[in-house]
Amino acid sequence: MVGDVAELSSNGYVNGGGNGALEEKVDELRRLFGKVDGDPLRIVGVGAGAWGSVFAAMLQDAYGNLREKVQIRIWRRAGKSVDRVTAEHLFEVINSREDVLRRLIRRCAYLKYVEARLGDRTLHADEILKDGFCLNMIDTPLCPMKVVTNLQEAVWDADIVINGLPSTETREVFQEISRYWKERITVPVIISLAKGIEAELQPEPRIITPTQMINQATNVPMENILYLGGPNIASEIYNKEYANARICGAEKWRKPLARFLRQPHFIVWDNGDLVTHEVMGGLKNVYAIGAGMVAALTNESATSKSVYFAHCTSEMIFITHLLAEEPEKLAGPLLADTYVTLLKGRNAWYGQKLAMGELSLDMGDSIKGKGMIQGVSAVKAFYELLSQPGLNLLNPTENKHVAPVELCPILKTLHKILISREQSCQGILQALRDETMNDPRERIEIAQSHACYRPALLGK
């Protein structure tokens, strides 16, 4: 079902120069898609987690008043109910924001939130999204959204599809989407926001990223699939905290899309190295979980957190040298993305809650109010890949060849905690305090002074 789009906001994200500048950016994209008058550019967000919802809402805020030229909608599954505790909190959020309260009253939508607060009605996630509330980010009201719960209706004629799904769901959903695109004449453009990876071990070890999953599922050529990532916290971006991101992919699409997505507070750069940036976006989630554990177990000790940071960043540098021919180019973006994720990301939050005993591994990695914790599956994938003997390299300290994972003690420990469950969260501190732990500098020297690059890992 398609939701009511009355009173869509269009004044939150004007990109300097007003509607004229916005129309120029829309017209540039319309020309690339061969659009004629009366045929709007159709943009669809698939998946309504925090970042997927914010991304679609930013576009709606910026371009929603240009309805004859561009249409923006978002798909999410129907049926997910909002529990009583969340409904009560949502009611408090609504009443604390005069603008939101007035908007709901004008739209005759306020009463249902009153009834939900009293327990007389059950709200659903797709229902509240139409009013601008993302279930994974209740404290940050968005603009009203045009929500579609039928996937075929959402995507069949879409020109641009925004993948806001977790990497663990991307393949399955896009396989379904491909069935609806069999009769298409034009090829859509897909922008993936997903940060996560899978491991493929046969015929040789390699990483599979969400953009590659989409390509395999739909046969949309890689030149029409892009990745957008950066050091971003969704709620802060919607609240106009200054941020930047990078869109990666073929030049034909990434440059006009970078201009189209750019906002005064959200600067979008572009880069041609899609897969490497995408993998790095998944890698930082691995170590963010451990950072949360260390923070909780040491009562936020700055010293302990800095020790962990030194070790985890040295492992990340080592892994980038395995994956990238010119890893130095990734240093700034990767470090920035890691920094923000360790500070406030959901993966660090998850590690912290595990260590405090407020969450358990038996609860799974999809957490109420947060969504999918991508770092868990990424730990498994990176561990499996880097354990393969075919990737062995020389460890000069011991003068023998070892699998790359043997030089990544933090990754090994996170696997023992999260995947094989051989250790408790305390294991992360034991690893840091192990007297045999090498100086992080030595790991970086191994990466920089030996032929570590394994192009096959990224399918190169």
Which characteristics define this entry?
two-stranded antiparallel sheet; alpha/beta; 16 strands
Summarize the helices and strands and which ones pair or pack.
Elements lengths: L17 H15 L8 E6 L3 H14 L6 E6 L5 E2 L1 H13 L1 H9 L3 H9 L4 E2 H6 L16 E2 L2 H5 L4 E4 L3 H14 L8 E4 L5 E3 L5 E3 L1 H9 L6 E5 L4 H5 L4 E6 L2 H11 L4 E6 L2 H24 L4 H22 L7 H14 L1 H11 L9 E2 L3 E2 L1 H13 L6 E3 L4 E3 L6 H10 L8 H7 L6 H10 L11
Parallel strand pairs: 1-2, 1-6, 2-5, 6-7, 7-10, 11-12
Antiparallel strand pairs: 3-4, 8-9, 10-11, 13-14, 15-16
Describe the structure.
It is a single chain. The protein has helices at 18-32, 50-63, 84-96, 98-106, 110-118, 125-130, 151-155, 167-180, 210-218, 234-238, 251-261, 274-297, 302-323, 331-344, 346-356, 374-386, 409-418, 427-433, 440-449, and strands at 41-46, 70-75, 81-82, 123-124, 147-148, 160-163, 189-192, 198-200, 206-208, 225-229, 243-248, 266-271, 366-367, 371-372, 393-395, 400-402. Helix content is 48%, strand content 13%. The protein is globular, with a radius of gyration of 23 Å. The chain has 460 residues and is an alpha/beta fold. The strands form five sheets. The protein has an eight-stranded mixed beta sheet with strand order 5-2-1-6-7-10-11-12, with helices on both faces. It has 19 helices and 16 strands. Mean pLDDT is 91; it is low at 1-17.
